[in-house]
Amino acid sequence: MDNSNKFRTDFKYYKQKCPLPDLNKVLDFSNIIAESAVQSIKAVEDEYVKIKSEEENFIASLMLPPSEWNIYELKDNPGLLFIRNPFTPIGQRFWIYRCLHDYTRKPNRLNIDAHNILDSSKNWWNISQREDQESLRKKLRWATLGYHHNWDTKAYSENAKDPFPSELAVLAKYVGRIVGCHNNFSAEAAIVNFYHFDSTLSGHTDHSEEDMSAPLFSFSFGQTAIFLLGGKSLEEAPTAMYIKSGDIVIMSKHSRECYHGIPKIVAAQEFPWNIFQNSNRPSANLGGQKSSEDCPYPPCKKTHTDSTENLNEKQTSIKQERKNLIDNILKEEFWSPFHRYIEQSRINMNVRQVLCKNHVGLST
Known about the structure:
The protein is α+β, with helices and mostly antiparallel strands. The protein has one domain: Alpha-ketoglutarate-dependent dioxygenase AlkB-like (Jelly Rolls, Sandwich). The protein has helices at 6-15, 54-61, 89-102, 124-128, 134-139, 166-178, 309-329, 332-342, and strands at 38-41, 70-74, 80-84, 109-110, 142-146, 189-196, 201-204, 216-222, 224-229, 239-243, 248-251, 260-266, 345-352. A hairpin with a 5-residue loop joins strand 2 (70-74) and strand 3. The radius of gyration is 20 Å and the shape is globular. 37% of the residues are buried.
């Protein structure tokens, strides 16, 4: 064994099944009272956070007010920001639904495309719900959005690009503003990873993007991951930490170029997407948003008047779709297949900026 490769040594240790690894040294951000390895970071005060659009207002309504966010930074790895679950239960259900039902649809690309398991007219989620398609559910490992990452060349291409989901772009930019991290962030590519209890993610660095100064945003839902964050060399021993449902990890500054990986998925101790309080249930007539008493922000003011009926119709259609979705994910019969999946799996949305500021395409 190469003892100089401390990252690989720790990765194998936490991955092992017999004997099971000792998890007492894994950093748990839900219990860091006595931890000296992290420091708290203050979010931008609520009154200084100006909602910039109706869509951002909707995204913000799926989360707690920023003043209630618990944000931490690793002292030994500057730029690694950890936000402990700022999502409401409705917010978690919303993003779980988007990942499973919508982000697995064309034109997004899936790992199973290469095996011609489904033709382009069929939807993975709908087909995978059949009783005889359990194996298909586990075969899906990733989906790419926006600029599609080429796993062979480790590069992006203008010939492999589709529109990026606006809600996910708004989420990343909103979170970045709250923590004061790269206010000009532009979400242009994402990898949605689907993990099961036997899944791992080998140690690696993310270096395919042209703008390496822009952070990576990681949003996790479902079962718990043990995440290893090392240094810029494999010789540096990594820090092991739990990432639980709803947690957000931002890799910026020094940590942006560090090795990281996931050696193990462990069972979650609670299912926060099911932990409701009365105030968390949005009114059915608010299009998925909370009432003005519950929502941390008032509706944003319109800065212009829409001049075309088509635009008005599109906006109305989007609001209605969100309203219907929020109503449906509160119904246990509708939510049941999503719960069955997520109680055995973990979903991670990893969002990144590809292009340098003010660039409209990849450099040749």
